Amino acid sequence: MASVTLSSVSKSFGAVKVLENISTEIHEGEFVVLVGPSGCGKSTLLRMIAGLEDITEGTISIAGQVVNDTAPKERDIAMVFQNYALYPHMTVAENMAFSMTLAGSSKAEKERRVREAADILGLNDLLERKPKALSGGQRQRVAMGRAIVRSPRVFLFDEPLSNLDAKLRVAMRAEIRALHQRLKSTSIYVTHDQVEAMTMADRIVVLNGGKIEQVGAPLKLYDDPANTFVASFIGSPAMNFMEAEIMDGDGGRSLVLQSGAKITAPAWCSRPSGTPVTIGVRPEHFLFGQEGVEMSVEVVEHTGSETHIIANHGSQKIVAVTNQRLDAAYGDKMKLGFPTGTMLLFDRETGERIRE
Amino acid sequence: MHRLYLIPTLAINLSIILLPAILTIALAFFRWDGISQPVFVGFDNFQALAGDRVFWRALTNNIIWTAIFLTIPIGFALLVASMLLLISRGRILLQVIFFLPIIIATVITARVWQGMIFNPVSGIFGWLEQFGIHLTNPLTKTATSLYGVAAVDLWHWWGFLAVIFFAALRQVPAEQIEAARLEGATFFQMLRYVLLPGIKSTIMLMMIMTVIWSFLVFDFVFIMTRGGPAYSSEVLSTMAYRLAFYDLNVGKAAATALVISLFGLVATFFYIRAQAKDGDL
Amino acid sequence: MNGADNRTTLTLTYVVLGMAAFITLFPIALMLLNSLKAAPEVIRSPLAVPEEIRWDNYTRAWRDGNFSTAFLNSAILTVMTIILVCGSGSMTAYVLARKKIKSWRLVTGYLLATTTAPIQLFLFPLYFGFARLGLIDNVFAVSVIYCAIFSPFSIMLLRTYFLAVPKELEEAALIDGATHWQVFTRVMLPIVWPGILTVALIVGLNTWNEFLIATTFLQGQGSMTAIVSFFLFSGQYTTDWGQLMAGATIVVLPVVALFIFLQRRFIEGMTGGSVKG
């Protein structure tokens, strides 16, 4: 077990900067997910922690020791790869024991550790098989078994579930999480899937364009995003954004949408009149009723537990979710109330949150 | 660290190929019998070649050889390969059969053809005499010796091409072929519009290789005719060999080798470019 | 495409393919058939079935061709060359496939160029150099020449096998604690083993069959290969074609047997470089 500290880490490939000034700390025993759209540099960052990529600037420390110039094998880490990277010419047991074979461990020791890991993952019946004879989920387990056998200081996961089908993905998600509860090992997990991030992480690091957008616990990011990027990236269906202007009038402050419709502004909003803002509303926060802004219904989707309504307000598309079973059809008019309490405001220019 | 991995390959390659190749270039400007001190003679060796009727004969033969091998085996191999695509039974067996000649040593092939086919006493040519069909051994006539040798090399070579083309044809997407069939293409239309364009890069590559190999051709000529009779089947590489090891005129042999390499070099340029285009470089 | 559209096309196809197969097999059949006949019978008709099967053609060919020594030489030469090419070639192919060095482009280009280099370009200085060093009639020295000649194409072929191995396997091994040499020997080599076998087969075939270098560098009675031995022996006994064909059969038999046994690997390996996916 160990903490991992990134301080002012940067990475360039030639003239292209892929990571800029990344600083954060992953605490001992924590499960941290690096999430972001493809090309945000999350995998590169993970590979730098593993020692597979050089660090252009800054330092990475494991358990307080700078490891910039330490070879991967001396970092005492284990990594689970996206395509599992199982050695095709070795059996499951040999795959799992390979690191110990290289380290010259005794046969009995290897057997004991492989057995232990296989017990945890339910791989006992597969130990003599070759990777070719395994299903995707089984390969995934072996890849994890290989990591567990080493009992490393840090576990690294590089999109380990993205090659599995949707159902298996959900199952493995829970399994990895359960494994972490059991082993309490420091884990860094890379994914582009925000649902994975939300469900698995103790804390999430949101990366975009080589920079950290926000770091925090899943629900903190959901409720209190720092900017429009995090707000839109976390949550599904995504947050609705509408452009508006603050306006002082007879009935107090209001927000005027581009269509001219007026919404009551939150009381804490202290920016001067005329400030352009972006309103952010989570789909489930809309109020269905008699009051609000008029929308024209486009599509209604029933998931069973919820109803998703996709509607237009002028050229603006809105997604609203309710757990009532609403009956509506294409073209129906409907009024949606904006929740003053949960509504978020962002600076239209910088995308940063406007706080109280 | 990884640089060390290259040492065996490069040490062997540089000492066996590059260094002697540089020496060959140098030797082309010297008179040398292989034993005594080489004497610098400038362009004398090249001048001697230019005035040597055998050299022009050999060069012409190489060009004829290239022309033959660029057309007959490639055409026949393409026909057979596309026909293999038509049938559903016996493909593997036929492939194995067509591939056989290329794995048989040139000496063996040459002797079998000399003794069992061309020979007027023991061969098929002699046997046909009984039926009044009179065929002379082509290897013994100046007018036909080159073609006699070429015939044997053709037998040795075409099947290999056919198997290569067949392998390439099998990679033409099945949907393209099916679409063409639905649109009513005949076999030759299919060949013309779908199959040949689909394996263009393979055909190009084999044509480049044919040019390179045609200027290197040695075994069959050396074994069956030694360039004779009266130099009628001489090619550049047998000429160079004769100059170096029989006439002990190593300088002139080196000059001939340079001429061979020059043709090879031009073709190699296209070869490397073709490989590079396919993303190998 | 499975099956032709109509019967006429199909029939015509089989006729042409059948003729092609006949042309290919005919000389080989003549060789086998006449290897069992006495010399006068061959002259009477090369096509007739032997009246009396003359196995002694083979024993005489074996003796006159000095094949006991020659086969041993060929075998040593072939094995040596295979070891040299596969050993040195796999290291180079790995480094080039993975672009482990900055100059990979230069080295690859150079090797591609030497793939097609004419033997005459380096033969003469090499011969006189070897003569001065006393390496003529030395089977081991000749295997080094073969290694130089066969390496470039072998490396290009092996390279494609290395390219097919996912990079993550190497990274996983590095994280598992392997040194670079261990990554190569314990992970990469076992995975590309089929490719190495293919290269070994082709290099073996080419070495066994090679004529120009063998006939130039190995002329001594004790050092010549089966091919050179047959070449000289067939020049001396040109009247007894039965015995000659028996000798020919002896030389090709191991090659053809191996080919038929492993034909898929042979064909894949020899055509592999020319067909682009």
Automatic annotation (TrEMBL), chain A:
Main location: membrane
Sections of the chain in a coiled coil: none
Membrane topology (UniProt): Peripheral membrane protein
GO MF annotation list: ATP binding
Matches recorded under InterPro entries: AAA+_ATPase, ABC_transporter-like_ATP-bd, ABC_transporter-like_CS, ABC_transpr_MalK-like, ABC_transpr_MalK/UgpC-like, Mo/tungstate-bd_C_term_dom, NA-bd_OB-fold, OB_MalK-like
Pfam family, any one: OB_MalK
Start and end residues of each ABC transporter domain: 4-234
Keyword Disulfide bond: no
Annotated CDD domains: ABC_MalK_N
Annotated keywords: ATP-binding, Nucleotide-binding, Transport
Location in the cell: Cell inner membrane
Superkingdom classification of source: Bacteria
Family classification: Belongs to the ABC transporter superfamily.
Protein name: Sn-glycerol-3-phosphate ABC transporter ATP-binding protein UgpC
Gene it is expressed from: ugpC
TrEMBL record, chain B:
Tagged with keyword Translocase: no
PROSITE patterns: ABC_TM1
Sequence ranges assigned to domain ABC transmembrane type-1 in this UniProt record: 59-271
Location within or outside the cell: Cell membrane
Protein origin, superkingdom: Bacteria
Transmembrane segments: 12-32, 63-85, 92-113, 155-172, 193-216, 253-272
Alphabetic keyword roster: Cell membrane, Membrane, Transmembrane, Transmembrane helix, Transport
Membrane topology: Multi-pass membrane protein
Family: Belongs to the binding-protein-dependent transport system permease family.
UniProt protein name: Sugar ABC transporter permease
Organism from which the protein derives: Hoeflea poritis
Upper lineage: Bacteria, Pseudomonadati, Pseudomonadota, Alphaproteobacteria, Hyphomicrobiales
UniProtKB/TrEMBL annotation, chain C:
Localization, UniProt: Cell inner membrane; Cell membrane
CDD domains the UniProt entry points to: TM_PBP2
Record has Ribosomal protein as a keyword: no
Regions that span the bilayer: 12-33, 70-97, 109-128, 140-162, 183-205, 244-262
Keywords attached to this entry: Cell inner membrane, Cell membrane, Membrane, Transmembrane, Transmembrane helix, Transport
Main location: membrane
Domain ABC transmembrane type-1: 71-262
UniProt keyword Cytoplasm, yes or no: no
Topological category with respect to the lipid bilayer: Multi-pass membrane protein
PANTHER family cross-referenced by the UniProt entry: ABC TRANSPORTER PERMEASE PROTEIN MG189-RELATED-RELATED, SN-GLYCEROL-3-PHOSPHATE TRANSPORT SYSTEM PERMEASE PROTEIN UGPE
Role played: Part of the ABC transporter complex UgpBAEC involved in sn-glycerol-3-phosphate (G3P) import. Probably responsible for the translocation of the substrate across the membrane.
Family classification: Belongs to the binding-protein-dependent transport system permease family.
Assembly and oligomerization: The complex is composed of two ATP-binding proteins (UgpC), two transmembrane proteins (UgpA and UgpE) and a solute-binding protein (UgpB).
Name under which the protein is recorded: sn-glycerol-3-phosphate transport system permease protein UgpE
